Amino acid sequence: MFRYTKATALREVLTWIVALVFLLPFYFLVTTALKSDQEVFSTDPIALPSSPDLSSFVEVLGQQGQSNVLLGLLNSVILTGGSILGMVLLGSVTGYVIARRTSRWSRGAYLLFLVAIVLPTQLGTVPLYIGARALGLTGSLWGMIVLYTGMLLPLAIFLYSGFFRGLGTEYEEAATIDGASRAQIFFRVVFPLMAPATGTVAILTGLIVWNDFFSALIFLGGSETQTLPVAMYYYVGSLVSQWNQIFAVVIISMIPILGFYLVAQKRFMQGFSGGLKG
């Protein structure tokens, strides 16, 4: 039977204090973004806005050219969604094959993918850019989807193969007896059971793609398909001290990925705890 003791109360108080400390930067972001230009410099940073003002958000979303935040937001959504889809499809199939086969080839491939995870991507930027330019993959979102899928595929394969190894083969054997093909077994039996792993892969790789600045700046530089981090860079670089607009850009960039996390957090938590429940 649970007993509410002084130690329990102390842990709750400490938890609330830690939570407030972590939420403090978000408080500064929101309150500063809702202040007018004059109020930003005339009031204390901790103070709430006297009259919430959305003009900074309107100003940010109305920008054009390289600092077009709205277009960068759309490009980032397309790029992140396409990359996640590619990594889930290719990573799940490859991880399943590696996990179910016990040959030297599968073990060697698994080790190669581990090495690819450890090595920094920046080491191969120059040859990767030369190859991507030769194939016409630079300057377009579809080319970046291919590049991100290739760069983050080892991570997706590593996560999927680990989950597949923990999944028994009873369901697959039963489906085989019923006459199902290997493709039907995977897509109708195995893959639905790996929803926690899919949520984990989608969130981890999605965060990397959404927040990536270096690759997008290199491979999309000079084109009209700038992602949100690059558009933020050009926009913030043109400002000196308009903190309400700068913080408004940061909030706009946070909203989609936070919304995606809130939707997929159940699968994400199940993935880290090793759960296989649908």
The CATH topology of the largest domain comes to MetI-like fold
Derived from helix and strand composition plus strand pairing, the structural class reads mainly alpha
From the coordinates shown, what is the CATH architecture of the largest domain?
Orthogonal Bundle
**Count of individual domains:** 2
Order of helices and strands: HHHHHHHHHHHHH
Assigned CATH superfamily of the largest domain: MetI-like
User: What Rg, in angstroms, do the CA atoms define?
Assistant: 23 Å
**Tally of separate helices:** 13
- Poorly predicted ranges (pLDDT <50, ≥5 residues)? 274-278
Q: How would you sum up the global shape? A: globular
In round numbers, the mean pLDDT is 82
Report the sheet-strand fraction: under 5%
Residues in helix, %: over 70%
CATH class of the largest domain: Mainly Alpha
Q: Kindly report how far apart the N and C termini lie.
A: 30 Å
Q: Count of DSSP E strands? A: 0
How would a crystallographer describe the biggest sheet? Answer: none
